[in-house]
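I'll show one example:
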Amino acid sequence: MCHDRRRRAQGSGFDLKSKGEFFTALCQRYLSGHLAANDYICEFEALYIAAEISLSEREYLVFDGIHTSNDRFEPSSKIRRTDNYLIDEPELRRLIEKGVRTLAA
């Protein structure tokens, strides 16, 4: 499923001029409950790959941290118990909120 979105994002004419605003809005859509965690992560990852080289340094630092948090997300508590590096959805939300607040400051 994520791979299909990545292909669509690469050819979608994604506006890199407003990339920081777009990623912030995407994070806000997830935080407000309009996107499920897996859908949010698929969309974020596909677009992040297309945009990461053109982000400002400040945006890159914040969104790279969110990207890392997305990679660490594991919905299964059984799997999370085997690896302390993995995080649950409340921790994912906390880290995304922290990044969005950093950009808003």
Summary: Residues 3-14 have pLDDT under 50 and may be disordered. The helical segments are 2-10, 19-31, 37-51, 57-72, 77-80, 89-104. The radius of gyration is 14 Å.
